[in-house]
């Protein structure tokens, strides 16, 4: 683990830090509030109060379960791309497209120069951090994924759009750092599906994170890792948050051919099943990783965000994450 960097930032974590990727299921009262707001039945202030209540619930839940690095659960977001596009100038909302399973999102359209005009996530991060003494991750969607999951009707090339977005996403990262955020995750699930554009994604990540005083993670999942590994290790981050369990730990075969050289947030529970894995299963997955990875480099988490699970399932899977981490610590 980049212990020296974390300690320099004032963060002293236990071995095998337990964390989560970012999203949690929204409690029923928030689901109702979002529907009420959409039909004009409640005010923005009433919706915001429900979102703050849900964040408070999940922060307390993470503390009770024993997670070491917390998240706000993304209670104020619908989709990870549309949310940021709504907050940046230069985008228009597009029609519904399917993202995965039966999930749909309004695919944004870039119609003008993209511009960051005001902090997007800082107020939410400040609120979540005010509820706990444990570190809370700031979580942003990266420039490459914002570009890839949007229509582009303004920039001449995908590269121009991506680098313009990187410049603006960096401003949000800078705002989080100024607010005191020490751990920032840049979500880039699109990186693993277009291997030919990995150099562009690496350039954009460098523009977003270099020389900022924070520990950076990137979350990548469910793609063609055989085509982007080990090149992806050139992304300017300290930690790769990867789904391991859903793919049957097949990435370990890649790590056996070329060493994994960064910290890793290692998914020990599959988020795409209702089944709650036995603790022994989660422990065994971690032990297989330890055959190739240095113990000090490993964080423990679910494969991906838990928003598609029920509240009860998410709690149970987080409990497995914490128990697996503690088992390896010997406590």
Short recap of the structure:
Helix content is 41%, strand content 15%. It is of the alpha/beta class and 331 residues long. Strands 5-7-8-9-10-11 form a 6-stranded parallel beta sheet.
Summarize the structure in words.
With 331 residues, this protein is an alpha/beta fold. Helices cover 41% and strands 15% of the residues. Helix 7 (158-179) packs parallel to helix 8 (198-209). The model has no long low-confidence stretch (mean pLDDT 95).
Query: Can you count the helices?
Result: 12
**Unreliable residue stretches:** none
**Structural class, judged by helices and strands?**
alpha/beta
Strand order of the largest sheet: 5-7-8-9-10-11
How confident overall, as mean pLDDT? 95
What integer value in Å does the Rg equal? 19 Å
What string, H for helix and E for strand, traces the elements in order?
Answer: HHHHEEEEHEHEHEHEHEHEHEH
Helix percentage range: 40-55%
How many β strands by DSSP?
Answer: 11
How much of the sequence lies in strands comes to 15-25%
């Amino acid at each position: 683990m980049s212990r020296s960097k974390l300690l320099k930032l004032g963060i002293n974590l236990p071995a095998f830090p337990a964390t989560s990727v970012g999203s949690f299921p929204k409690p029923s009262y928030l689901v109702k509030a979002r529907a009420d707001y959409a039909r004009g039945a409640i005010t923005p202030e009433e919706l915001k109060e429900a979102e703050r209540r849900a964040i408070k619930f999940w922060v307390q839940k993470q503390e009770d379960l024993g997670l070491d690095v917390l998240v706000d659960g993304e209670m104020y977001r619908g989709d990870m791309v549309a949310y940021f596009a709504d907050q940046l100038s230069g985008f228009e909302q597009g029609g519904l497209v399917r993202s995965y399973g039966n999930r749909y999102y309004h695919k944004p359209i870039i119609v003008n120069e993209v511009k960051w005009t005001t902090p997007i996530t800082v107020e939410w991060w400040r609120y979540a951090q005010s509820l706990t003494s444990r570190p809370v991750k700031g979580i942003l969607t990266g420039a490459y994924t914002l570009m890839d999951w949007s229509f582009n009707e303004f920039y001449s090339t995908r590269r121009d759009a991506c680098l313009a977005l990187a410049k603006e996403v960096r401003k949000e990262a800078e705002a989080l750092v100024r607010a005191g955020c020490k751990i920032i995750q840049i979500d880039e699930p699109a990186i693993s599906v277009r291997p030919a554009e990995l150099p562009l994604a690496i350039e954009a990540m460098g523009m977003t994170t270099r020389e900022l005083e924070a520990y950076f993670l990137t979350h990548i999942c469910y793609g063609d890792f055989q085509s982007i590994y080990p090149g992806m290790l050139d992304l300017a981050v300290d930690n790769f948050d990867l789904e391991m369990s859903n793919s049957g730990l097949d990435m370990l075969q890649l790590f056996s051919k070329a060493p994994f050289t960064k910290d890793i947030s290692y998914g020990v529970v599959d988020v795409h099943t209702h089944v709650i894995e036995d603790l022994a299963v989660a422990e065994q997955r971690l032990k297989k990783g330890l055959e190739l990875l240095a113990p000090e480099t490993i964080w423990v988490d679910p494969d991906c965000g838990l928003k598609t699970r029920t509240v009860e399932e998410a709690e149970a899977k987080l409990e497995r994450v914490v128990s697996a981490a503690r088992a390896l610590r010997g406590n």
